[in-house]
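tmp note - CubicO group peptidase (Beta-lactamase class C family)
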Amino acid sequence: MLPTTELALLRRVAHEQAVCRTPSLVTAVVRDTGIVWSGGRGKVDGTRPGVDTQYRIGSITKTFIAALVMRLRDEGRLDLGDPLDKHLPGTVLGDRTIAQLLSHTSGVTSESPGVWWERSAGGDWAALRDSLGPEAMVLRAGSKFHYSNVGFGVLGELVARYRGMSWLDAVTKELLQPLGLNRTTPVPQAPHALGWAVHPHADVLLPEPAHDAGAMAPAGQLWSTLTDLARWLRFVAGDTGEILHPDTMAEMRTPVAVDDADSWTSGIGLGLQLFRDSGRRLAGHTGSMPGFLANLLTDEGSGTGALVLANSTAGVGIVGLAIDLIKTADELEPVLPAEWEPASAHPDLLDLTGTWHWGPTPYTLKLRAGAWLELGPTTGYGRASRFRPVGDGTWTGVDAYYAGETLRVVRDEDGKVSHIDLATFIFTRRPYSPAGPIPGGVDPHGWASSP
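out:
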């Protein structure tokens, strides 16, 4: 990036590290090519930390578990609306759905019973399962957002049962290895930071423990680096390769519940935290374990993302810092639009483009790359959506009002397009065309000059 941009970014990071008295802090700005800027402050083993220094990433671990659950869904092994008992019987959470566990709306207690799991060695699945009694159901299922580490311990076991291996082996085989995340591990590997607590009233440190969390490990066990997390951030933004369909990732970034209903600045999707700031919609996840704080965040509009890793139990404003890095990068060096290039199109698809009418309202149908369709009101307000081809001559809505709905092109006996059927709504070339199967029929007198 330009020297002026780099100075502005480093100035923000330096201020955070100094004011928050953080032993060390590393950050990065990420775009579609990877890391475009990184900066560190403080020391790890006497030197400035960099893109290959490991930090514990805490609850960012949950995003890996969520991706595996969505892979199981896409394979047809489960449905997000299924109750847990259908796939992992024998728990008190049996009536809670997979989607509710992913979105922290299951009403399950936030922490596992017993001692503080983040600072203690964890037990096995049987111990966690048996510790969860009726009192673990603290809220009505689906009633509101209530963050639950326990829920992701459960989802980790669900993944393990279906894959016939530990959650960690499944993450390694299906996500880490294909993406080349070789420095994302369950225990630290040098060079790595040590976790510290900073005294609130003195500039002294206390080391924090780092145990294997056992059955709770899927909620926050992993360690990683800026280099690895930059690739994972691009994955969250939609660069999923062959691992997940980009539509599935977009589904995960879609809001399910909000944390602050009055202002809606933070919420949750399917395993991803969501934030809104100054018109920006951001997705990713924070992480917090004793001695460490982390954040991974991408702006869905600009495609710019930020990473923050610190080895302090508290104090660093990881969300605000990440958002400020994204804002600074986009304001000083905005992302350029991709160059337009012409594309080939089948004549039959070209014939579909142009003006269609839903009743008297004109809509414009446009053909996009990959045989996608885009339908929206020609002027004024109305329902607009994009549609991806299914392969059987139909299209499926991917966003807005028609998300999930089927768009079907209907032809007459001569093979000519008669109308478009979209979730029972009939679109015709002429407004209320008598030739189209308009629900309720069209008055035989047609259009008149007066009532």
